[in-house]
Amino acid sequence: MQVQFSPDGRWIATASFDKAVKLWDGVKGSFVGTLRCHVGPVYQLAWSSDSRLVVSASKDSTLKVWDAASRKLKEDLPGHADEVFCVDWSPTGGAAASGGKDCVLRLWKH
């Protein structure tokens, strides 16, 4: 499980073993909504530099890119052969990098 503030402080996202990403108001701390699409526990997440998108990494060997404001799935990123343990956005927001149990680093252009 992981907790991460968006760069602008507006959102908090949590990754959890219930296969979901949960969004919270970063100022009030109140629950905003649940993002569901993974079929395995969510290990890690990362925010884009503009705080619009959050990417989640899961045991299901995929990454999912979510639009925070609409709480909709924007992109499904299959490609790892096993669990995805880590993910991060580039500082410019043009790419994300992920790594997992398959011992592969993947670079995802956005």
From TrEMBL:
The keyword NAD does not apply. Keywords: Nucleus, Repeat, WD repeat. One of its GO terms (cellular component) is nucleolus. It comes from the Eukaryota. It holds the Pfam family WD40. One of its GO terms (biological process) is ribosomal large subunit assembly. Its main location: nucleus. WD repeats lie at residues 1-25, 35-76, 77-110. The keyword Translocase does not apply. It is found in: Nucleus, Nucleolus. PANTHER family: NOTCHLESS PROTEIN HOMOLOG 1, WD40 REPEAT PROTEIN. This is Uncharacterized protein. It comes from Symbiochloris irregularis.
